[in-house]
Each structure stands twice: as structure tokens, then as C-alpha cells.
Write a structure and sequence with these properties.
Layout (H helix, E strand, L loop, with lengths): L1 E15 L8 H4 L3 E5 L6 E3 L17 E10 L4 E3 L3 E4 L8 H15 L1 H17 L8 H13 L8 H20 L2 H19 L1
Antiparallel strand pairs: 1-2, 1-3, 1-4, 4-5, 4-6
Length: 198
């Protein structure tokens, strides 16, 4: 990016496209905007690379459109060409983690229509604890997800997003133990430090 008045911020804007069924909740998700870290303040020219793990995003594995939007010191916006790509998707090897992620996708696509069936499937998985090494945290997470999808369910986007995050973290724990969660915490700390220094 370059600008005579200095670059204030750059945002990566991700929008779901084509393959999403218009009736699905995923098609109704607002564009995801990620503010990118600049290598300084009020730069007239900037070139930088940053890492963002989007594999937990409900659009992972689906086609999206990506655009960069830069804002200068006067508030003027510059927009890049849109690039179409498939948002990277994590492939889980553990069969129980794969089953959880499959149910997560069904819930993300049609929460109202699928929530009862997803809750029932997750409860079945939960009680087969020998298949995930009797991990009590996994058991409690799955039971919690089933309860949150049962009576008293709130059909808000925030409620569904909370269940989707719980299922993602549970699948990661089965697949990698606590390693993936520790790596995410480290990346978050690195980003916070980078933001504080810029």
C-alpha cells in the first residue's frame, strides 16, 4: 500500500460467495474483517506479511472473496482487486474429532433445522468416551454443547457462534491434546505484542 497522506490502517475483508446456499445461515454471516498490522505509523508506503488462522471460521473449506481496504490520514479508502479463493480448512485425522467437526458444519449451515439432530449426535459421541481416551474435559464439553442446543436454546448468532467455538476447541483437544490451544494462545500474544509495538 502507498499513499501521500500516510496509511492509517489496512483491513482484509472476507466475503462468502457462490457455493453458499442462500437459505443457509452461513450465507447470512457478515463479512469478516481483519485489521492487518502495519510495520509503523503514518507510512507513505507499506509492505508487510501477517498470519491469521481462519481454519476455525464457519466458511473454512468454502469459496470466499478477499479484498484489502486501506485508509489514509484523510479517511479516504483504497480497495484492491477481489481475489477468489477457498478458505483453508483443517483436516482432522482422529475419527471423533472429524465427527464433531461434521456436526459443527451441519449446525453452522442450518442451526434451526439441524440443532436437535446435532445435539442428539453429540450426545451419542459424548457417551462413547473410550473412543477419545476417557478425556473428562471432552465429555463435559460435548454434554455442554448438547444442553446449549436443547431446551432454552437461544437462536441468536452469538449463541450459535459460542457453540461452534466450543465444538472447534473440543475437536482440537481430541486431535492434538492441549498443544493447538497453547499455539493459539502464543500467536495471540505475539499479535498483541506486534500491535503494541506498531
Amino acid at each position: 500500500a502507498q499513499d501521500d497522506y500516510g496509511i492509517e490502517k489496512v483491513v482484509a475483508k472476507i466475503i462468502g460467495i457462490g457455493a453458499l446456499d442462500d437459505a443457509s445461515e452461513l450465507a447470512k454471516l457478515a463479512p469478516t474483517e481483519i485489521e492487518l498490522t502495519l510495520p509503523g505509523q503514518k507510512l507513505r508506503e507499506a509492505k508487510s506479511t501477517s498470519f491469521h488462522d481462519l481454519t476455525p471460521h464457519p466458511w473454512a473449506g468454502l469459496p470466499v472473496s478477499l479484498q484489502l481496504v486501506a485508509q489514509d490520514g484523510l479517511g479516504q479508502l483504497g480497495v484492491s482487486k477481489a481475489v477468489q479463493l477457498v478458505l483453508p480448512e483443517r483436516i482432522f485425522q482422529h475419527p471423533v474429532a472429524r465427527a464433531i467437526i461434521d456436526q459443527r458444519r451441519q449446525l453452522a449451515l442450518y442451526p434451526e433445522k439441524n440443532r436437535s439432530r446435532v445435539a442428539a449426535m453429540l450426545e451419542i459421541v459424548a457417551w462413547e468416551y473410550d473412543r477419545y481416551a476417557d478425556d473428562f474435559v471432552v465429555f463435559m464439553s460435548l454434554i455442554s454443547a448438547t444442553r446449549r442446543l436443547g431446551p432454552g436454546y437461544q437462536g441468536t448468532a452469538e449463541h450459535v457462534a459460542g457453540v461452534l467455538k466450543l465444538l472447534w476447541d473440543t475437536a482440537l483437544r481430541i486431535e492434538d491434546g492441549t498443544l493447538s490451544l497453547s499455539e493459539q494462545a502464543l500467536r495471540d500474544a505475539q499479535k498483541a505484542l506486534q500491535d503494541a509495538l506498531s
